[in-house]
Amino acid sequence: MRVTVRVPAKINVVLRVGPPRADGFHDLATVFHAVSLFDDVTADDVADGTGVRLTLDGPYARGLAADESNLAVRAAHALASAAGVAADVRLRVHKSIPVAAGLAGGSADAAGVLLACNRLWGLHWPVPRLTEVAATLGSDVPFSVLGGTALGTGRGERLEPVRVGGELHWVLAVADGELSTPEVYRRLDEIRADAGPPELPSGVVAAMERADAPAVAASMANDMEAAALSLRPSLRSTLDAGRAAGALAGIVSGSGPTCVFLAPDGPGAAALAQVLSASAPCRTTEVVTGPAVPTVHVAS
Question: Is position 176 annotated as part of the catalytic site?
């Protein structure tokens, strides 16, 4: 049997970050939103005792380790351990989501492995049970299993789905290089005054439910943006270029360095991407829509 999962990237429409906790993490209040940029995760049956084998390809696979340090491999072992089954599977990940870019590319791969092996190994666990395993792997992994749109609290692992009543149009401006999420958190704690408990803006949920792009734009915010700009000042030029080119709003996505812009419609997104590609200091642009969800295909 072969199971292939297309798993989407995520953006944070809003990301509010509380002060550091005793365990070193931060409480979050965020609106996760999955968008139509996908990694493809394939899981194949193998002989008993083979273990977990991973191969990587695609435009963003270069330089990634395919060993036990890879989150996809760790996800296979975590699910096997939780289910009490042997961790025997051949995995292939086609990387179209940039790495360390604020788009949860590694989390998407881990989620794809959980969804694929859940079917391959005949577990048929419901999504809430899979998200319990996902939460042991990383703060963004539970949402990557779920997809769509959701409010995230705690470290981001406590989710409340939001039903979006239409399609939103986005442009991702993917920067050269990477930003380390722990480094951005450390910089955030260095540069800001005492932070209170994180709270979402009033009205953002209703705006998402209506897919009201101007109202969503008015709520977009990211507490980590100042830290990301401190570490990568060139991102300010990208944000300025997008806003000047007609984006309804633009912010750094998560810990960056990708910048995400909300457009009024599909043609507006295409025009915005063209301007950014010509004028902004970014590696590439991606025109995407949301919400998106993981899809599972089974072949015997």
Answer: no
Please tell me the distance from the alpha carbon of residue 98 to that of residue 118, in angstroms, as a whole number. 25
Rounded CA gap, 103 and 97, in Å? 7
DSSP 175: P
Tens of pLDDT, residues 214-259 = 999 999 999 999 999 999 999 999 999 999 999 999 999 988 899 9
Give the global pTM: 0.94
Q: Which token pair is 207?
A: 């705006």
Question: Any known ligand binding at 111?
Answer: no
Domain interval for residue 256 = 168-290
- For the segment 69-78, what is each residue's pLDDT rounded down to a tens digit? 999 999 999 9
154 is in an annotated binding site: no
39, 40, 109, 140: the catalytic one is 140
Counting the structural domains of the chain, the total is 2
> Is 13 a domain residue?
yes
Structure tokens of 246?
């007609």
The dihedral through the CA atoms of 176, 276, 6, 11 has a sign that is positive
Residue 105 among known ligand-binding residues: yes
User: Catalytic residue at 95?
Assistant: no
The set of residues, in sequence order, having a beta carbon less than 8 Å from that of 11 and lying 6+ positions away, is 32, 33, 35, 102, 103, 170, 172, 253, 254, 260, 290
